[in-house]
Amino acid sequence: MLNIVLFGPPGAGKGTQSELLVSQFGLNHLSTGDIFRANIKSETELGKLAKSYIDKGELVPDEVTIGMLKSEFEKAGDAKGFIFDGFPRTTEQAKALSGFLQEKGTDITLMLALEVPEEELVNRLLLRGKDSGRADDADENVIRNRIKVYNEQTAVVADFYNALSKFNGINGVGSIEQIFERLSSAINSSNK
Ligand code: AMP
Description:
Layout (H helix, E strand, L loop, with lengths): L1 E6 L6 H12 L2 E4 H10 L3 H10 L7 H14 L5 E5 L5 H13 L6 E6 L2 H15 L2 H4 L1 H15 L2 H7 L3 E5 L4 H15 L2
Parallel strand pairs: 1-3, 1-4, 2-3, 4-5
Helix pairs in contact: 1-10, 2-3, 4-5, 6-8
Bound molecules: adenosine monophosphate.
């Protein structure tokens, strides 16, 4: 299986690039942010809980997020592989993910980490907030808090995969096509 963690700060382009990678490599896409938003829309208990964190730009607690990811992963059934987008965001989540995958006799193949300067992230998110309908993209304070949370709690996840020689930093500045090309070549060279 080809299991990819698509990593990077908010606004790095994970969602956009995931869609392209899914069609190119025939993978299943699991985005914890998308799953939370679907739950918020359908007003489930999980959605109500997640909203209280998401609206402030904080992480939803590990226990809740890991449980949800596990059940979505199991629902997905057989697949060529997965793109994990927005997960793991903590070292606890990374460890749990390896556990689920190892139970199925597989593991993470590689982490692709999109690298984008902070001011560009803020500009991209403010622009996206004009039509994404996402409350967490519309308020600059929430955007800055999401980046702070990324730096303080999530960036360390890269060290976890680096220690396993699975980390690949990718320049996340350029056109969508250029960035997709960089990601695809990193995948192709890891598959050789
Ligand atoms: P995203 O769509 O990946 O930008 O996620 C939107 C928001 O959902 C984040 O700012 C967090 O509040 C929450 N979220 C998404 N994925 C996770 C995760 N793996 N762990 C904790 N919170 C998450």
